[in-house]
Amino acid sequence: MGLFDFFSRDRKVTPAQSAPTVETQQVDFAPLVPMAAIISNNDAQVAADIATLAQGYEAFRTAHPDWCAKMRFGDPEPEQLHATIRDAFVYWLAGYDTPFVYGAYIDWKEATDDIVGQLKRVADSLGLSLDLAEIPFPGDEHTEAALQQIAGYVRERGYALTVIDTESDSYHLYLVPQAEYDRMVALGASVGFRVYSPA
Predict the structure, then answer these.
(1) Which listed residue, of 6, 98, 113, 118, carries a Cα 20 to 30 Å from 26's Cα?
(2) Domain ranges within the chain, ordered by starting residue
(3) Measured between alpha carbons, how far is 49 from 159 in angstroms, rounded to an integer?
(4) Which of 44, 159, 24 is nearest to 88 (CA)?
(5) What is the tens place of the pLDDT at every residue in 58-109?
(6) Are 147 and 182 spatial neighbours (Cβ–Cβ below 8 Å)?
(7) Which pairing describes strands 104-107 and 159-164: parallel, antiparallel, or unpaired?
């Protein structure tokens, strides 16, 4: 699947299947704001948008009705709200029909060139000096192996290839400063998100 299919393909998420360990109404989503700041290198517009999301899905949908409709979030049941907020967060930051390019969305079986191409856009958007074309891929690697190799490359240069798990067959990838990675994981855990690095 090519890089330019990113904005045309159907997203593969099933919020109804997600079961957070904490009831949504008990979750304080305020940590989404510093998570977004880490991911976006303190983009002020991202901070404002995610602060709205942290107030709850209804507040975010009121602010962005067309986007939420296009993403087919609909009217989530109470047990779906946690997954809906998570999915809104990851897709908004990944630039899925938004003005931001702070993350990459890839399928579980993605061509390595497409992974590198999407992450290059992220690095360029953040102003990072990462030349992913330097990575010596063998040419027959599976997606997970490619991600592990990329993770090792960026770690040596002070960044962590970070995944926010959406319990789907896709990956949402972000390039965060290695010094902020543990904080990112802890912030994610505080709102019931699994955040990890492929290697």
Answers:
(1) 98
(2) 3-196
(3) 25
(4) 24
(5) 999 999 999 999 999 989 999 999 999 999 999 999 988 999 999 999 988 8
(6) no
(7) unpaired
